[in-house]
Amino acid sequence: MNYKHYQIIRTLIGLLIATMVMTASITNNFYLAISSVLMGMLFLFLVKSKFKKIIVDERVISVSGRASRIAYSVVTMLLALSGLSLIFAGRNHEGSNLEFLGEVFCYIALLLIMVYSISYYYFNKKYGADE
């Protein structure tokens, strides 16, 4: 099995898990959701154990680091801006939960910033920044 087949199988297992969890949430079946996630994790573990040769070079690490940084920035800004707009929209509409949803979005954005800051501090110390 080469890396391309491994990625295809991993994607198909992820799609199967998402489909089963979506079906479970529609039918309000909590046990189906938990069992499908656990079975998917088992299948992913079995597929990964069959595929042992994953080559990671510096380019892959650099590209994934840049992609995750951009994804973090975009998602955090979208959450914060949509949270603020929902807070302001909720203040104009009495009886709606828009303001509460906006606060939740803002707190999630703050949580993302906190996790990023802590992980940045940790990895910065671990990999030898002299500060």
What features would you highlight for this structure?
single chain; 131 residues
Describe the structure.
By secondary structure, the protein is an all-alpha fold. The protein has 2 domains: 3-50; 58-126. The protein contains 4 helices and no strands. It has helices at 3-26, 30-50, 58-92, 98-126. Helix 3 runs antiparallel to helix 4.
Gap between N and C termini: 45 Å
Question: Helix proportion of residues, in percent?
Answer: over 70%
- How many separate helices? 4
Instruction: Give unreliable regions as ranges.
Output: none
What pattern of helices and strands is seen along the backbone?
A: HHHH
Profile the largest sheet.
Answer: none
Overall geometric form: flat
User: How much is the average pLDDT?
Assistant: 87
Beta-strand level of the residues, as a percent range? under 5%
Number of domains: 2
Structural class, by secondary structure, is mainly alpha
Q: How many E strands?
A: 0
- Radius of gyration (Å): 20 Å
Topology, please?
Layout: H1 3-26, H2 30-50, H3 58-92, H4 98-126
Helix pairs in contact: 1-2, 3-4
Quick structural overview:
The protein is mostly helical and 131 residues long. Helices cover 83% and strands 0% of the residues. It has helices spanning 3-26, 30-50, 58-92, 98-126.
